[in-house]
């Protein structure tokens, strides 16, 4: 017979099950509508930002803090408060009980909010997939990409989603074989066929699409998505305005057409002419220097010849005498 579980063992297993369920529910939460990610306008500098304990721009404390878990601004007298206030509706700093380390927002002094928000906060690992900034590094709100379900800051939200449905391949074939990929993972940007979509690590739940064998993210059928492949342009680009920037082999055709039409050379070739003129000037200066040196050498040789002739004439005069 199996050993009877002790009370501590039962508590530990139930705690693990609750933590597992809370992590699973964290991915289902709509981050844009959660109170910890609500819009807030600072009372002092009038700037809009994410709900936070202190203003991101001027560090001012708000007059009416909003709870990051339940979203209330007033604590009623009938609630389960840690700090009792019988017969009084508490607002402002009298209502708050803590500051969340993940979402940087106030949590009210209700017993349920204080004990559950830190475990189920949807912004626990909310680092932007594009700029890699956390909640404490920018003042905007946090969103999730509707395709890959990664976190995005307010600055990169639209730019990322416009380029998210692009595969990291040039075809729609499976990454493990040459068959057409029926299932696509928008987080890994890869396609898988029916056989290679099955994974031994990640189990497939009934009624759901098979998970990605690489990251475990839920895949979607490629035919239901507006997926596009990666395009790479090799070599020089010809035609149109590209000839101004690309002066390669494919640009010769348009160059000769331009010359035949009397358009003359482009600005890039004008720079080459200036360079050739500079080289001609340098060559002329070198030739002038060489000619001057030759003239000096000839003058020195003529002077030596005159001295030798005078010496020979003196010897002849002495011999004659």
Structure description:
- By secondary structure, the chain is an alpha+beta fold.
- Helix content is 33%, strand content 10%.
- The chain has helices at residues 7-28, 111-120, 157-162, 242-245, 252-260, 267-320; strands spanning 39-41, 48-50, 74-75, 90-91, 96-99, 106-108, 142-144, 151-153, 183-185, 190-192, 220-221.
- The strands form 5 sheets. A 3-stranded antiparallel sheet has the order 10-9-11, with no helix packed on it. Strands 1-2 form a two-stranded antiparallel ribbon. The protein has a two-stranded antiparallel sheet with strand order 3-4.
- The longest helix is centred in the C-terminal third of the chain and has 54 residues, at 267-320.
- The protein is elongated, with a radius of gyration of 41 Å.
- The relative contact order is 0.06.
Features:
three-stranded antiparallel β-sheet, 33% helix, 321 residues, two-stranded antiparallel sheet, alpha+beta, 11 strands
The rough form would be described as elongated
* Share in β-strands: 5-15%
Beta strand count = 11
- Low-confidence runs (pLDDT<50, min 5 residues)? 236-250, 266-270, 317-321
Rounded to the nearest angstrom, the radius of gyration is 41 Å
Biggest sheet descriptor: 3 strands, antiparallel
* Neighbour order of strands in the largest sheet: 10-9-11
Which class of secondary structure composition applies to the elements?
alpha+beta
- Give the number of helices: 6
Question: How do the helices and strands follow one another from N- to C-terminus?
Answer: HEEEEEEHEEHEEEHHH
């Amino acid at each position: 017979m199996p050993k009877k579980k002790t009370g501590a063992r039962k508590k530990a297993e139930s705690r693990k099950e609750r933590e597992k369920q809370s992590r699973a529910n964290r991915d289902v939460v709509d981050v844009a509508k959660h109170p910890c990610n609500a819009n807030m306008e600072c009372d002092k500098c009038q700037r809009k930002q994410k709900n936070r304990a202190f203003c991101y721009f001027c560090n001012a404390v708000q007059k009416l803090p909003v709870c990051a878990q339940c979203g209330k601004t007033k604590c009623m007298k009938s609630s389960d408060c840690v700090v009792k206030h019988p017969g009084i509706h508490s607002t402002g700093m009298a209502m708050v009980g803590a500051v969340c380390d993940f979402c940087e927002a106030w949590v009210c002094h209700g017993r349920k909010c204080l004990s559950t928000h830190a475990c189920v906060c949807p912004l626990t690992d909310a680092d932007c997939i594009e700029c890699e900034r956390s909640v404490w590094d920018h003042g905007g709100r946090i969103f999730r990409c509707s395709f890959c379900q990664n976190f995005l800051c307010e600055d990169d939200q639209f730019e990322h989603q416009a380029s998210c449905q692009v595969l990291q391949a040039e075809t729609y074939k499976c990454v493990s074989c040459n068959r057409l990929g029926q299932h696509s993972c928008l987080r890994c940007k890869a396609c898988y066929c029916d056989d290679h979509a099955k994974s031994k690590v990640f189990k497939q739940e009934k009624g759901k699409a098979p998970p990605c064998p690489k990251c475990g993210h839920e895949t979607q059928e490629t035919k239901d998505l507006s997926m596009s492949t990666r395009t790479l342009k090799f070599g020089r680009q010809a035609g149109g305005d590209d000839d101004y920037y690309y002066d390669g082999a494919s640009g010769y055709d348009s160059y000769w057409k331009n010359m035949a039409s009397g358009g003359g050379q482009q600005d890039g070739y004008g720079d080459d002419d200036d360079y050739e003129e500079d080289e001609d000037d340098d060559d002329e200066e070198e030739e002038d220097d060489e000619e001057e040196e030759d003239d000096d050498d000839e003058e020195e040789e003529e002077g030596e010849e005159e001295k030798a002739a005078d010496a020979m004439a003196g010897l002849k005069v002495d011999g004659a005498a």
